[in-house]
Amino acid sequence: MTDLAIQARDLTRAFDDFVAVDRITFDVRAGEVFGFLGANGAGKTTAIRMLTGLLKPTAGQATVAGHDIARDTEAVKRDIGYMSQRFSLYDDLTVRENVRLYGGIYDLSRSEIDERMRQMLSRLGLEHAEKELVSALPLGWKQKLAFSVALLHHPRVVFLDEPTSGVDPITRRQFWEMIYEAAHAGTTVLVTTHYMDEAEYCDRISIMVAGRIEAMGTPRELKEQAGVSSIDEFFVSLARPQQ
Amino acid sequence: MNALWGLLRKEAYHILRDRRTLAVLVLLPIVQVLLFGFSIRTDVKNVRLAIVDPAPDATTLELRNRFTATGTFRTVAVLQNERDLDRLFQTDTAQVAIVFEPGFGSRLVAGGVAQLLIIADATEPNSGAARQNFVTAVVQRYELEQRQRSGAIRILPEARARFNPTRESTNLFVPGLMALVLNIIAALMTALSLTREKETGTMEVLLVSPLRPWQIIVGKVAPYMLIGFVGVLTVLIEARLVFGVPIRGSLLLLLAEGGLFILVALSMGILISARTSSQRVAMMGAMLATMLPTQMLSGFIFPIESMPRVLQVIANIVPAKWFVLIARGIMLKGVGLAYLWQETLVLAGMAALLLVASTRSFKVRLQ
Predict the structure, then answer these.
(1) Phi and psi (nearest 5°) for A5?
(2) How many CB atoms are closer than 10 A to CB A240?
(3) CA distances from B217 to B11, B16, B259, B282, B303 (A)
(4) Is residue B130 classed as helix, strand or coil in its secondary structure?
(5) What contacts B360, CB < 8 A, 6 or more positions away?
(6) Cα distance between residue B97 and residue B120, in whole Å
């Protein structure tokens, strides 16, 4: 129990007749980097919305950081971080104002916020940009900043919804280094992506097709089972028959 | 508390950094007061008055002087009989006429009762009614003074105009204008700022956070409440300074009722934003749902009494109608809650209903 960061059992969400997520069951261990793969519309975002308390499941159950997502939504919210598909910082606020806003939302004290901000900015090499408007930063920096802000309150689980879309390859690599760093520090990372090379970086991955988890395991296991040389090939072979 | 305070400050940054929108919000009430003020005000100044006084005596002369003394009327003709009046009206030489009955003064002294006919050009119904009301007010004031001085007299003014007159003077644009300004600031801006967060995706981050829905709503809405109050004060002060519009009743009550109306407008804004996900749609929605009814059906520009029956009924569900009634009562008639409790109750009911509906609509999106 304690070393399971996410535990989903037959988690289901239906919208009227359409079943977006269909009885998915999976565990994510604490400190794991778990890749959540699937074509557009496969149900990844719906699953994440349930795990983050934005949507109520219509059937099944799940715990995140040990809290039941349907009953203990408020406790779940305290222990998770979230970076949305779209940009999650305010463009018309400065770096510092954004950090202080989110720190305040998670009830950190002013001195804690300022201390963590200082560390964070020096790690990112963004000390000079503290008083700059976020809109003035290049996209890659914005994404790294958004990720750091999602980690500001030291969540036990962080959900990243396509964090690297539209980012250049070098920044993507740096971004993944940050993900590893967070995982090493004990934060569980659940990440969705469309980049198959990124899937190879994950400890384990699951692939969703039409609301179901069709495959799950380490990238190596999955490739060996299917006899293919890359996750990319594996993904296409899984996803294609359904489309 | 810390969290809410942070949200409020963030919203303040949004507002202060969007200079152009801020400028519009600040200038809007100022310009509106001037526009409405002057366009309506000019009509009641320099009213061309024709007087029919078949047998002038001390009383009619004094009453005639009263009209000149107001500074509002310019006597264009003094006639012996009514026959020539038609020509004056047709050529637009006169806009309003008073006709004394023969022996006006002696009847008043002897019997205490005399008749007076007021004729107003009603081609422009609103200004016609306003002028006619002004004349009636002058006559009534004279009557009142005479009564205090020398006992009971009655002047029976008979109004002739094909229009159902309202009782207030031109100052009545100010209450409606407050409603309009509040709709723009509270409803429109709230809807826009909420949908903007949905558009950019930051709303999701707020919803995932431990913030309670009410904190998010208060954090988004309170700053606009403040701007709304500033807007109301701007309108009141400017109307006072430039046009001398009075506040005869309690300013405190007026502001409290304004607060109630702000709640209504904010709730409308939240409701609109709950139904839309783009700022463009939110803008159209706010115009259609709040600004249009306020301009057309609140009695602000077009008197409700002169509307077709159906519209009169529909006007009852327009919150601005009730606010305009209340604000006119306080500002122009100087009455308090004792007279306005029913209207206040309706407005409060609407505010409560909309507030509940809007917070619920906001919660529904979490599920």
Answers:
(1) -80, -40
(2) 10
(3) 11, 19, 17, 17, 36
(4) helix
(5) none
(6) 6
Does CATH number 3.90.230.10 belong to domain B45-160? Answer: no
ipTM above 0.90, yes or no: no
Residue of chain B nearest A15, judged by CA positions: B367
Task: Provide the residue ranges of all domains of chain B, joining segments of one domain with +.
Answer: 2-40+169-364, 45-160
pTM of the model: 0.73
Backbone dihedral angles phi then psi of residue B55, each to the nearest 5 degrees: -135, 85
Please work out, in degrees rounded to the nearest 5, the angle formed at the alpha carbon of residue A171 by the alpha carbons of A169 and A172.
60
Cβ contact, residue pair A101, B7, below 8 Å = yes
What gap in Å lies between CA B362 and CA B288, rounded to an integer?
A: 21
Task: For residue range A146-203, list pLDDT tens digits in order.
Answer: 999 999 999 999 999 888 888 888 989 999 999 999 999 999 999 998 888 888 899 9
In whole angstroms, what is the distance from residue B294 CA to residue B343 CA?
Answer: 16
Domain ranges of chain A: 4-242
A131 at interface of B, judged by CB pairs closer than 8 A: no
Domain spanning A4-242: CATH 3.40.50.10540: no
Which pair of structure tokens corresponds to residue B33? 């007061």
The Cβ of residue A7 has, within 10 Å, a number of other Cβ atoms equal to 18
Give the orientation angle of helix B319-328 with respect to helix B173-182, to 10 degrees.
140
Residues of A in contact with B7 (CB under 8 A): 101, 104-105
Q: Mean pLDDT for each consecutive 10-residue tract of chain B (367 residues)? A: 84 88 84 75 71 86 85 86 80 84 82 83 67 83 79 69 40 81 89 89 88 88 91 90 84 94 93 87 87 83 77 90 90 85 94 90 60
B218 touching chain A per CB within 8 A: no
Beta strand extents in chain A (DSSP E only): 4-15, 18-29, 33-38, 59-64, 67-68, 80-83, 157-161, 188-192, 204-209, 212-217
Q: Give B-chain residues touching A104 at CB under 8 angstroms.
A: 2-3, 5-7
User: What is the torsion angle, in degrees rounded to the nearest 10, for the CA atoms of residue A162, residue A163, residue A169 and residue A170?
Assistant: -160
Task: Please count the helices (runs of H) and the strands (runs of E) in chain B.
Answer: 16, 5
**Mutation to test the B interface, candidates A13, A105, A109, A111, most B Cβ within 10 Å:** A105
CB pairs under 8 A between A and B: 78
Distance CA B136, CA A95 (A): 66
What residues contact A227, with CB distance under 8 A and at least 6 apart?
A: none
The answer to whether B133 touches B169, Cβ cutoff 8 Å, is yes
CA B150 to chain centre: 38
Identify whether the C-beta of residue A223 lies closer than 8 Å to the C-beta of residue A229: yes
B6 interfaces chain A, CB cutoff of 8 Å:
yes
Whether the Cβ atoms of residue A28 and residue A5 lie closer than 8 Å to each other: yes
The residues facing B50 across adjacent strands are B77, B97
